[in-house]
Sequence to fold (620 residues):
Amino acid sequence: MIFLPQTTLTDPFWNARQKPFLENGLRHQWQMCQETGRLENFRRVALGQTGGHQGYYYNDSDVYKLLEAMIYGLHASPNLTPVLHLVEEAVDLIEGAVQEDGYINTFITLGKPDRRYARLASEHELYCMGHLLEACAAAGESCPKEAWAKRLVSVGHKVVDHLVATFGPGQVKGYCGHQELEMALVRFGKLSRRSDALSLGRWMIEERGSRPSPFEASLTDPSSPSFDQTYFDRCFVTGQYDGQYCQDHVPLREMDQIVGHAVRACYFFSGALDSFGDSDPALKKALKAVWQNLTESRMYITGGIGSTAANEGFTSDYDLPNRSAYAETCAGISLVMWGARMGSLFEDVHYWEVAEKSLYNGVLSGVNLGGDLYNYVNPLECYGDHTRQPWFACACCPPNIARMILSVQRYAGDWNDARFLLGLLIGGSYRSPDGMGAWNVEGDSATGKEFAFTPEGVLPQGLLIRIPSWASSARGKVAGEVFSLEPGSFWRIERNWDPGERVELELGIKPKVWDSHPSVWENQGRIAFSHGPFVHCFEEFDLGFAPQEMAVSQGPISMSGSFEGVPRLQVFGVRAGRASNALYGSPLDRSLTEVTASSLPYAFWDNRGKNRMQIWVRER
Ligand code: FUB
Ligand code: ZN
Fold:
């Protein structure tokens, strides 16, 4: 992970993704928080009122995530005065709502003050505080001298004081049903040099999955105020407590499959890597096994994860329906977080490939080009009945995608003393942690063909550049020497870098055709197309008919035009028709019309009106 304040994003593709949020999306989301009572909840607590909480018990987290996104927005565009005013207003609200002892949660404080931490499995108090700590850390990292940021960091300290005084060895044995706090404690702990925050995060990770589970006790007595039927149903699927839903079934180091709720899982694994790094062989082994299970049998071609709404998570291997895919935007985001961490720590391109797949497909499809309509679920096929929404009652995804897009360069790579690693080819300036030097990367992710790296100042000798597996060829040039590079590997360069030197990378890109494992039944007889990191789809809007009526050939594939600067593909096929209009008839009545079909990146589907769409099309 890269420290955001030491970066400048220059990549035209990603600047174009940030712009709608800066111009409109952030303020739109604030307005939504206002209209839905999310801000009012904080005001009421600040005024000492009781009752009247509006919305879900975890709605505070949306305000925190939006605040974090707005702080990133100020990094991207420091003169964004209207957003600065909203940031200041948010800080006022949060400062007013934090309790004397550092506890903060508007749902509990307004309506259930006796129920603090009684329902750790379900009520998300620690999850919400985790998101608050992320915002506090973002403020302390990006704007340490601003008065509002100092106030927010103080709130963060107060919250951490409260948490370490409440949970941990010899105190409450507890952690949150929805992981997030683990990551946040590391981030805030590192920023504020608080070893107690780091220890608490590690302890929560270690405790999870041990027996007796703190969740089990609170979920077994239906007459107790801490009983929650929904969570009972989710955690006692077999009649016995199993905890798979929230990854509380076994200790982390014993896991070998990905189970339960998708966002919780990937946040958990990200937090574990932040806490333990690569120093722990058993953890590494477990995370690699879980990752393998996910990416080899439970992930969509878009990087979407969690195929069912039933648990917002995982089912069984190869169960990847297209039209009913859940593939929550937050889950895609959480996979980028986890993949970038695995890719950095283990220096393995494979993890970056997956993080990129998710980011450029299943995550980007979560928002429209205007930055103010969002997908919660990201189906891979549509009959014209799905479209993005301005907001949701459970609105975790909109502020999550805002914070990820506005800080996308955080996920592009990693520094250590020996090297700079660029895992995602995103153009920008990346300053070293000691501030002594920088790598300036020129390139445009939309076309992904040419990148140039120029060193500045004093830099570690190592430079690792991911050569993506989607490249059909790769050529590098450094100090006049030309190298032929292997797609799907790192280009490792070790030298003393002089200012004025230049590293050049040229990628060949050819469209790719995909099919699926035979056990993904729904995709049998179907193919999909991609170009560079972008998975493509077909929309009725371009075809003039539903893609479901078409069968296409694997080739030839030509390039024709672009969408948001990303090349489009053209393939050939036939469209089914019938002589009669009867619902059923003889196959002899069939007619086939030749068609030329233009694709577009799945990331940008549903931007021209509701219509039918398909990624996996029938093969001719
Ligand atoms: O529970 C908080 C968030 O809301 C989760 O991460 C999402 O899956 C949605 O349930
Ligand atoms: Zn979400």
